[in-house]
Specification:
The chain contains eight helices and 16 strands. The chain is an alpha+beta fold. A hairpin with a 2-residue loop joins β4 and β5. The longest helix is centred in the N-terminal third of the chain and has 14 residues.
C-alpha cells in the first residue's frame, strides 16, 4: 500500500549529519540558506532487493555537485555510500527510493554564505512507479514545455542542484493540469533536451537517438540504457535533435532513476507505438538493477 502521509510526518529514521535520528526530528531552521538561495544538491537513487543501484556513482555526483556550488560535503564518497546503506537498513526497506541531500545551513543570511555549516542527510521510503502504472503500460502523454533548459554558461547544468528544478516543477504542474503526464523541454537553443525529471530516447529504423547532454544532466540511468543497448548490438546516436523531427520517430521512451524505463505514446501532436526495442530495454534494465543479476555478469 502506498504511504500517503506527508513527508514530514512519518515513522522511521533519517540519517542526519552523521547519525540516525527519528524521522519527525529531521528538521532545519526556516532561515537555512538553502531554503532561500537554493544552495543544495541532491540525488535520487533506488534500492532493489536491499542494494542501491550504482550507489557510488550517485554519491560521487553528489560530492562533485557540491563542489560546483562552492561547498564541500564533510563526508567522503565512501561515507556517503555507507550513510545511504544505513538508512535503508534502519527503515527495514529492501525496494525503495533513497534521497541524499547536502545543503548550506542557517549561520549566515544573504547571497554570501561562506560562514554556513554544510549539512548532509539521507532519507529513504517505499516509492513505486514514478508514473501511474496504467500510464506506463500504455505509454506516457507528453506536452511541450514553455521553459527551456538553461545555457550552461548561466547555470550549473551538469549538477543535481536544487535550483535547476524550479522550472521543472512549473512545467510538470502545467502538464498535469492539461491532462498530460509530463513535459518535454527544449534547451536554450531550441533543441530537444529532456523531460522535467528524465532523459529521453527516440527510435527510428532500429537506431536509438538521444539528445547530447551538453546542457542537462547525463543521467546514470541514461548511461546504463546506452550500455544495455550496446550489448544488444543496437546503435545509439547522441546528437542534436530538433523539434521538427519528433514526427519522424517510431518509438520513444524516457529514462531515469525514478522513471526507470517508461514508454511514451504521445508528444503534443506526435504519436508513438511502444515496440520490441522499447520492450527489450525495459526487460534488460529490470534485470540489470537486480543484485543477483549484476553479480552474475
Amino acid at each position: 500500500m502506498v504511504d500517503t502521509a506527508p513527508y514530514h510526518d512519518r515513522d522511521g529514521f533519517v540519517w542526519f549529519d552523521g547519525k540516525l535520528i527519528a524521522w519527525r526530528e529531521a528538521n532545519i531552521h526556516v532561515l537555512s540558506h538553502a531554503l532561500h538561495y537554493a544552495s543544495a544538491v541532491f540525488e535520487g537513487e533506488r534500492a532493489y532487493s536491499g542494494e542501491i543501484f550504482e550507489l557510488t556513482q550517485h554519491s560521487q555526483r553528489l560530492y562533485d555537485g557540491a563542489k560546483v556550488l562552492d561547498f564541500t560535503i564533510p563526508y567522503s564518497v565512501a561515507e556517503i555510500d555507507e550513510a545511504c546503506r544505513d538508512t535503508i537498513r534502519a527503515n527495514n526497506l529492501t525496494d525503495c527510493y533513497v534521497r541524499p541531500i547536502a545543503w548550506r545551513g542557517s549561520e549566515q543570511m544573504g547571497v554570501s554564505a561562506q560562514a554556513t555549516k554544510i549539512h548532509l542527510a539521507v532519507a529513504a521510503w517505499d516509492w513505486g512507479s514514478y508514473f501511474p502504472m496504467e500510464e506506463r503500460l500504455k505509454g506516457l502523454r507528453l506536452t511541450m514545455a514553455k521553459y527551456r533548459r538553461p545555457d550552461p554558461a548561466t547555470a550549473p547544468a551538469k549538477t543535481k542542484a536544487a535550483g535547476l528544478y524550479m522550472i521543472c516543477t512549473i512545467e510538470k504542474h502545467r502538464a498535469e493540469r492539461a491532462g498530460y503526464a509530463d513535459a518535454l523541454m527544449l534547451d536554450w537553443r531550441g533543441h530537444v533536451a529532456e523531460c522535467t525529471g528524465a532523459n529521453i530516447f527516440f527510435i527510428k529504423e532500429g537506431v536509438l537517438h538521444t539528445p547530447t547532454p551538453d546542457c542537462f544532466l547525463d543521467g546514470i540511468t541514461r548511461r546504463t540504457v546506452i550500455r544495455l543497448a550496446g550489448r544488444r548490438g543496437l546503435k545509439v546516436v547522441e546528437r542534436t535533435i530538433l523539434p521538427e523531427e519528433l514526427g519522424s520517430f517510431s518509438e520513444c521512451f524516457v529514462v531515469g532513476t525514478a522513471a526507470e524505463v517508461t514508454p511514451v505514446a504521445e508528444i503534443a501532436e506526435h504519436t508513438y507505438k511502444p515496440g520490441k526495442i522499447c520492450e527489450t530495454l525495459i526487460n534488460d534494465y529490470t534485470a540489470a538493477v537486480q543484485p543477483k543479476q549484476r553479480a552474475a555478469e
